[in-house]
Specification:
This protein is α+β, with helices and mostly antiparallel strands. The chain contains seven helices and seven strands. 51% of the residues lie in helices and 25% in strands. Helix 4 packs antiparallel against helix 5. It is elongated, with a radius of gyration of 21 Å.
Length: 179
């Protein structure tokens, strides 16, 4: 996404701030990471299908069949729920860094934002897993005192370079806050 498009989309949010960096996750890596539950999901789904087949052949009462159906649903959701969610959220996800803040835009139905001042960022880590290696991406983990969990920027291309850019902006923001 070009900076002009980002500024148009986030005009009210950014205001007079200078946009330093913006990115969308690499689509293939972002969605493929959702398949992490494939093996356990298929195991639960297969067991539930086996259960349902035996229960149905034995003439089990409807509550027993519904119980097995519930596990089939759980297996399906574990198997395909996460990649379906990732595909839906991808349209609205955007990572943006201004000269003062880091903004993560996301959401399926509505648009949600995680916003943190650069001067409040305590640490930034890079994680590159197997899927990231395959697609040439990485995950930036941004730690602050304000959030109990890290802010996560998934499937970012050139993760080490983008981590360096973010760390330099954080150092600059902290120095300007001190003076």
């Amino acid at each position: 996404m070009h900076i002009a498009e980002v500024r148009k989309e986030l005009r009210e949010l950014v205001g007079s701030e200078k946009i330093i960096w913006s990115a969308k996750p690499k689509k293939e890596a972002f969605i493929f990471k959702g398949f992490a539950g494939l093996i356990p999901g298929l195991f639960i789904l297969g067991f539930a299908f086996f259960w349902e087949t035996l229960a149905f052949k034995a003439g089990a009462p409807i509550p027993i069949l519904l119980f097995g159906g519930l596990f089939m649903l759980i297996g399906f959701l574990i198997t395909l729920g996460s990649p379906i969610y990732a595909a839906l959220v991808y349209k609205n996800i955007l990572y943006l860094m201004t000269d003062t803040r880091l903004i993560i835009q996301k959401g399926v139905v509505g648009i949600d934002y995680d916003i943190v001042r650069l001067s409040e960022i305590q640490n930034v880590n890079v994680n590159v897993g197997l899927i990231d290696k395959i697609f040439g991406t990485g995950t930036l983990m941004v730690y602050t005192a304000a959030y109990t969990r890290p802010l996560i920027l998934r499937a970012i291309e050139n993760p080490y370079e983008n981590c360096r850019i973010l760390r330099e902006a954080v150092e600059k923001a902290v120095k300007s806050k001190e003076t």
